Amino acid sequence: MLSNEQISDSAPSSGTSPLRIVTEIDENDHDLSWLSASSGSSSANSLFDAPPPATRTTGPSLSFAEHAIASRRPPPIPGLFAPPVLLPVDLADEVMHICSEKYFSSGSVNQVMLFGRALPLEHTADPEPGVQAPGLPPFLTRLLSSLCELLRPELPPAAHALLFPPPGAPLRSRQAILNRYTPGEGITPHVDLLRRFGDGIVGVSFGSTCTMGFRRVADDDEEEGGAVSESAEGESEWNLHLPERSIVVLSGDARYRWTHGIEGRAGDFVRDEQGSEARWIERGTRMSITFRWLLPGADIVGGDA
Ligand SMILES: O=C(O)CCC(=O)C(=O)O
Ligand SMILES: [Fe+2]
Protein backbone atom coordinates (compact mmCIF):
# COMPACT_ATOMS: atom_id res chain seq x y z
CA MET A 1 0.00 0.00 0.00
CA LEU A 2 2.77 2.34 -0.80
CA SER A 3 2.61 4.95 -3.45
CA ASN A 4 6.10 6.28 -3.23
CA GLU A 5 9.01 4.03 -2.63
CA GLN A 6 12.56 4.80 -3.40
CA ILE A 7 15.65 2.85 -2.75
CA SER A 8 19.00 4.51 -2.85
CA ASP A 9 22.49 3.24 -2.34
CA SER A 10 25.06 5.59 -0.99
CA ALA A 11 28.55 5.08 -2.30
CA PRO A 12 30.27 2.61 -0.03
CA SER A 13 33.50 3.93 1.31
CA SER A 14 36.35 2.12 2.89
CA GLY A 15 35.37 0.38 6.09
CA THR A 16 31.70 1.15 5.69
CA SER A 17 28.86 -0.96 4.44
CA PRO A 18 26.51 0.39 1.79
CA LEU A 19 23.67 2.36 3.25
CA ARG A 20 20.47 1.06 1.76
CA ILE A 21 17.51 3.26 2.30
CA VAL A 22 13.84 2.96 1.58
CA THR A 23 11.64 5.99 1.98
CA GLU A 24 7.96 5.21 2.16
CA ILE A 25 4.82 7.28 2.20
CA ASP A 26 1.45 5.76 2.86
CA GLU A 27 -0.78 6.08 -0.17
CA ASN A 28 -3.74 6.80 2.04
CA ASP A 29 -2.22 10.18 2.60
CA HIS A 30 -3.51 11.58 -0.66
CA ASP A 31 -2.06 15.01 -0.34
CA LEU A 32 1.61 14.28 -0.69
CA SER A 33 2.56 17.82 -1.60
CA TRP A 34 3.82 18.34 1.93
CA LEU A 35 6.50 15.77 1.46
CA SER A 36 8.85 14.80 -1.29
CA ALA A 37 11.58 12.26 -0.97
CA SER A 38 14.99 12.10 -2.49
CA SER A 39 16.22 9.30 -4.65
CA GLY A 40 19.76 10.48 -4.12
CA SER A 41 22.17 9.17 -1.57
CA SER A 42 21.51 9.31 2.14
CA SER A 43 20.44 12.59 3.53
CA ALA A 44 18.95 11.13 6.64
CA ASN A 45 21.66 11.90 9.08
CA SER A 46 24.62 14.11 9.15
CA LEU A 47 27.05 15.83 11.36
CA PHE A 48 25.93 19.46 11.24
CA ASP A 49 24.25 19.11 7.87
CA ALA A 50 27.61 18.75 6.17
CA PRO A 51 29.03 15.71 4.46
CA PRO A 52 29.97 13.05 5.28
CA PRO A 53 26.63 11.77 6.51
CA ALA A 54 26.38 9.33 9.37
CA THR A 55 27.38 6.10 7.75
CA ARG A 56 26.71 2.57 8.73
CA THR A 57 29.99 0.94 9.61
CA THR A 58 31.40 -2.54 9.85
CA GLY A 59 34.33 -3.34 12.06
CA PRO A 60 35.84 -1.19 14.75
CA SER A 61 36.98 2.30 13.93
CA LEU A 62 39.24 4.54 15.91
CA SER A 63 36.41 6.76 16.99
CA PHE A 64 35.78 5.12 20.33
CA ALA A 65 38.27 3.67 22.74
CA GLU A 66 38.73 0.02 21.94
CA HIS A 67 36.88 -2.18 24.39
CA ALA A 68 35.21 0.79 25.99
CA ILE A 69 33.07 -0.49 28.81
CA ALA A 70 29.42 0.47 28.69
CA SER A 71 27.04 0.85 31.57
CA ARG A 72 23.28 0.98 31.99
CA ARG A 73 23.74 3.99 34.20
CA PRO A 74 22.70 6.99 32.10
CA PRO A 75 25.68 9.22 31.39
CA PRO A 76 25.33 12.58 33.15
CA ILE A 77 24.76 14.42 29.88
CA PRO A 78 22.10 17.13 30.12
CA GLY A 79 19.02 16.11 28.16
CA LEU A 80 19.97 12.43 27.83
CA PHE A 81 17.52 9.99 29.36
CA ALA A 82 17.86 6.22 29.46
CA PRO A 83 15.13 5.14 31.88
CA PRO A 84 15.16 1.62 33.32
CA VAL A 85 11.71 0.88 31.89
CA LEU A 86 11.56 -1.51 28.93
CA LEU A 87 9.02 -1.77 26.14
CA PRO A 88 6.59 -4.66 26.84
CA VAL A 89 7.70 -7.93 25.26
CA ASP A 90 4.46 -8.41 23.28
CA LEU A 91 4.68 -5.03 21.64
CA ALA A 92 8.39 -5.40 20.91
CA ASP A 93 7.78 -8.80 19.31
CA GLU A 94 4.94 -7.41 17.22
CA VAL A 95 7.00 -4.45 16.01
CA MET A 96 9.97 -6.68 15.19
CA HIS A 97 7.75 -9.11 13.33
CA ILE A 98 6.07 -6.43 11.23
CA CYS A 99 9.35 -4.73 10.39
CA SER A 100 11.10 -7.96 9.47
CA GLU A 101 8.25 -8.99 7.18
CA LYS A 102 7.40 -5.65 5.68
CA TYR A 103 10.66 -3.77 5.40
CA PHE A 104 13.67 -5.97 5.96
CA SER A 105 12.64 -9.30 4.46
CA SER A 106 14.86 -8.96 1.40
CA GLY A 107 17.99 -8.54 3.47
CA SER A 108 19.14 -5.85 1.05
CA VAL A 109 17.71 -2.89 2.95
CA ASN A 110 19.07 -1.74 6.28
CA GLN A 111 17.38 1.61 6.74
CA VAL A 112 13.79 2.74 6.22
CA MET A 113 12.31 6.19 6.71
CA LEU A 114 8.62 6.72 7.35
CA PHE A 115 6.80 9.98 7.81
CA GLY A 116 3.75 11.06 9.75
CA ARG A 117 2.05 14.28 8.90
CA ALA A 118 1.44 16.90 11.53
CA LEU A 119 -2.19 17.26 12.48
CA PRO A 120 -3.78 20.63 11.91
CA LEU A 121 -4.26 22.61 15.09
CA GLU A 122 -8.02 22.08 15.19
CA HIS A 123 -7.38 18.35 15.62
CA THR A 124 -5.20 18.66 18.66
CA ALA A 125 -8.06 17.72 20.97
CA ASP A 126 -7.03 14.19 20.05
CA PRO A 127 -7.02 11.96 23.14
CA GLU A 128 -3.38 11.21 22.53
CA PRO A 129 -1.89 14.45 21.30
CA GLY A 130 1.52 14.04 19.82
CA VAL A 131 0.93 10.37 19.18
CA GLN A 132 -1.36 10.38 16.17
CA ALA A 133 0.52 11.20 13.00
CA PRO A 134 -1.42 10.27 9.86
CA GLY A 135 0.89 8.60 7.40
CA LEU A 136 2.70 6.50 9.96
CA PRO A 137 1.59 2.88 9.94
CA PRO A 138 -0.66 1.87 12.87
CA PHE A 139 2.02 -0.25 14.56
CA LEU A 140 4.18 2.86 14.92
CA THR A 141 1.26 4.79 16.37
CA ARG A 142 0.84 1.96 18.88
CA LEU A 143 4.54 2.16 19.65
CA LEU A 144 4.35 5.93 20.16
CA SER A 145 1.32 5.49 22.36
CA SER A 146 3.13 2.97 24.55
CA LEU A 147 6.23 5.18 24.73
CA CYS A 148 4.08 8.14 25.75
CA GLU A 149 2.69 6.20 28.73
CA LEU A 150 5.90 4.41 29.68
CA LEU A 151 7.92 7.60 29.67
CA ARG A 152 5.44 9.79 31.52
CA PRO A 153 6.64 8.80 35.00
CA GLU A 154 10.27 8.53 33.86
CA LEU A 155 10.94 11.90 32.28
CA PRO A 156 10.77 15.44 33.60
CA PRO A 157 7.46 16.90 32.35
CA ALA A 158 9.23 19.29 29.96
CA ALA A 159 11.15 16.46 28.30
CA HIS A 160 7.98 14.38 28.03
CA ALA A 161 6.13 17.33 26.47
CA LEU A 162 8.91 17.73 23.93
CA LEU A 163 8.25 14.22 22.67
CA PHE A 164 4.49 14.21 23.20
CA PRO A 165 3.21 17.77 22.91
CA PRO A 166 0.20 18.62 25.05
CA PRO A 167 -3.10 19.73 23.47
CA GLY A 168 -2.84 23.09 21.79
CA ALA A 169 0.86 22.87 21.02
CA PRO A 170 1.63 23.21 17.35
CA LEU A 171 2.15 19.70 16.05
CA ARG A 172 4.85 18.94 13.55
CA SER A 173 5.58 16.08 11.23
CA ARG A 174 7.39 13.09 12.57
CA GLN A 175 9.98 10.96 10.94
CA ALA A 176 10.44 7.38 12.06
CA ILE A 177 13.77 5.94 10.99
CA LEU A 178 14.19 2.18 11.17
CA ASN A 179 17.75 0.88 11.24
CA ARG A 180 18.75 -2.76 11.06
CA TYR A 181 22.25 -3.83 12.09
CA THR A 182 23.80 -7.24 11.70
CA PRO A 183 26.46 -8.12 14.31
CA GLY A 184 29.56 -6.08 13.58
CA GLU A 185 27.68 -3.17 12.04
CA GLY A 186 27.39 0.25 13.59
CA ILE A 187 26.78 3.87 12.77
CA THR A 188 29.39 6.59 12.83
CA PRO A 189 29.22 9.23 15.57
CA HIS A 190 26.96 12.03 14.41
CA VAL A 191 24.59 14.76 15.46
CA ASP A 192 21.20 14.34 13.76
CA LEU A 193 20.69 16.97 11.08
CA LEU A 194 20.32 20.33 12.75
CA ARG A 195 18.30 22.00 10.05
CA ARG A 196 16.01 19.09 9.42
CA PHE A 197 15.16 17.70 12.82
CA GLY A 198 13.96 19.44 15.95
CA ASP A 199 14.62 18.84 19.61
CA GLY A 200 13.25 15.73 21.27
CA ILE A 201 14.35 12.41 19.79
CA VAL A 202 13.33 9.03 21.12
CA GLY A 203 14.75 5.68 20.07
CA VAL A 204 13.97 2.07 20.95
CA SER A 205 16.23 -0.98 20.56
CA PHE A 206 14.87 -4.30 19.36
CA GLY A 207 16.33 -7.76 19.01
CA SER A 208 19.79 -7.19 20.41
CA THR A 209 21.82 -5.26 22.86
CA CYS A 210 24.39 -2.68 21.75
CA THR A 211 26.47 0.16 23.11
CA MET A 212 25.74 3.72 22.14
CA GLY A 213 28.72 6.02 22.46
CA PHE A 214 28.40 9.72 23.20
CA ARG A 215 31.13 12.21 22.54
CA ARG A 216 31.10 15.86 23.33
CA VAL A 217 31.26 18.01 20.22
CA ALA A 218 34.48 19.96 20.04
CA ASP A 219 34.30 23.75 20.00
CA ASP A 220 35.45 23.97 16.40
CA ASP A 221 32.74 21.63 15.20
CA GLU A 222 29.91 23.59 16.66
CA GLU A 223 28.02 25.41 14.00
CA GLU A 224 26.93 28.18 16.27
CA GLY A 225 29.98 28.28 18.52
CA GLY A 226 29.49 29.07 22.17
CA ALA A 227 30.18 27.12 25.28
CA VAL A 228 30.92 23.45 25.01
CA SER A 229 28.70 21.17 26.97
CA GLU A 230 30.37 19.12 29.65
CA SER A 231 28.75 16.31 31.49
CA ALA A 232 28.32 16.87 35.18
CA GLU A 233 31.40 14.73 35.75
CA GLY A 234 33.43 16.64 33.17
CA GLU A 235 33.92 13.66 30.86
CA SER A 236 33.72 14.07 27.12
CA GLU A 237 32.98 10.46 26.21
CA TRP A 238 30.44 8.00 27.58
CA ASN A 239 29.20 4.57 26.61
CA LEU A 240 25.64 3.60 27.33
CA HIS A 241 24.48 0.01 27.19
CA LEU A 242 21.20 -0.33 25.31
CA PRO A 243 19.57 -3.70 26.01
CA GLU A 244 16.74 -5.04 23.92
CA ARG A 245 13.53 -3.03 24.40
CA SER A 246 15.35 -0.17 26.04
CA ILE A 247 14.50 3.44 25.30
CA VAL A 248 16.81 6.39 24.89
CA VAL A 249 15.80 10.03 24.70
CA LEU A 250 18.00 12.81 23.32
CA SER A 251 17.10 16.40 24.05
CA GLY A 252 18.87 19.67 24.65
CA ASP A 253 22.63 19.26 24.99
CA ALA A 254 22.44 15.53 24.36
CA ARG A 255 20.78 16.21 21.03
CA TYR A 256 22.79 19.26 19.98
CA ARG A 257 26.17 19.18 21.71
CA TRP A 258 27.00 15.49 21.86
CA THR A 259 27.40 13.03 19.04
CA HIS A 260 25.91 9.57 19.31
CA GLY A 261 27.11 6.52 17.45
CA ILE A 262 27.46 2.75 17.60
CA GLU A 263 30.82 1.14 17.15
CA GLY A 264 30.76 -1.68 14.59
CA ARG A 265 31.64 -4.60 16.85
CA ALA A 266 30.52 -8.18 17.40
CA GLY A 267 29.72 -7.46 21.01
CA ASP A 268 30.16 -5.12 23.94
CA PHE A 269 31.79 -5.06 27.32
CA VAL A 270 29.12 -4.10 29.81
CA ARG A 271 29.25 -3.37 33.50
CA ASP A 272 26.10 -3.41 35.59
CA GLU A 273 24.96 -0.45 37.65
CA GLN A 274 26.64 -1.77 40.77
CA GLY A 275 29.96 -1.52 38.95
CA SER A 276 30.52 -5.26 38.71
CA GLU A 277 33.26 -6.74 36.56
CA ALA A 278 32.59 -6.05 32.90
CA ARG A 279 31.24 -8.95 30.88
CA TRP A 280 31.19 -9.43 27.13
CA ILE A 281 27.75 -9.55 25.53
CA GLU A 282 27.56 -10.75 21.94
CA ARG A 283 25.41 -8.74 19.61
CA GLY A 284 22.72 -10.29 17.47
CA THR A 285 20.77 -8.59 14.73
CA ARG A 286 19.51 -5.35 16.15
CA MET A 287 16.79 -3.06 14.92
CA SER A 288 16.14 0.41 16.19
CA ILE A 289 13.26 2.77 15.64
CA THR A 290 13.94 6.45 16.21
CA PHE A 291 11.29 9.17 16.12
CA ARG A 292 12.32 12.71 15.25
CA TRP A 293 10.42 15.91 14.58
CA LEU A 294 10.78 17.42 11.16
CA LEU A 295 11.38 21.13 11.52
CA PRO A 296 8.84 23.44 9.89
CA GLY A 297 9.81 23.66 6.24
CA ALA A 298 12.04 20.61 6.54
CA ASP A 299 9.24 18.22 5.67
CA ILE A 300 10.49 18.47 2.14
CA VAL A 301 13.22 15.89 2.38
CA GLY A 302 15.95 15.00 0.01
CA GLY A 303 17.35 18.32 -1.14
CA ASP A 304 19.68 20.53 0.79
CA ALA A 305 17.98 21.09 4.09
O1 LIG B 1 20.32 2.73 15.86
C1 LIG B 1 20.23 3.62 16.69
O2 LIG B 1 19.81 3.43 17.84
C2 LIG B 1 20.67 5.02 16.33
C3 LIG B 1 20.28 5.46 14.96
C4 LIG B 1 20.64 6.89 14.69
O3 LIG B 1 21.32 7.51 15.46
C5 LIG B 1 20.15 7.57 13.50
O4 LIG B 1 19.55 6.92 12.62
O5 LIG B 1 20.35 8.80 13.41
FE1 LIG C 1 21.22 9.66 15.08
Automatic annotation (TrEMBL):
Entry GO terms, CC: mitochondrial matrix
Gene Ontology terms: biological process: DNA damage response; fatty acid metabolic process
PROSITE patterns linked: FE2OG_OXY
One MF annotation (Gene Ontology) recorded for this entry: 2-oxoglutarate-dependent dioxygenase activity
Domain (Fe2OG dioxygenase) ranges: 172-295
Region described as Disordered: 1-23
Domain of life the protein comes from: Eukaryota
Pfam families: 2OG-FeII_Oxy_2
InterPro entries referenced in this protein's UniProt entry, alphabetically: AlkB-like (IPR027450), AlkB-like_sf (IPR037151), ALKBH7-like (IPR032870), Oxoglu/Fe-dep_dioxygenase_dom (IPR005123)
Feature: compositional bias, Polar residues: 1-17
Protein name, entry field: Fe2OG dioxygenase domain-containing protein
Organism, as annotated: Athelia psychrophila
Lineage: Eukaryota, Fungi, Dikarya, Basidiomycota, Agaricomycotina
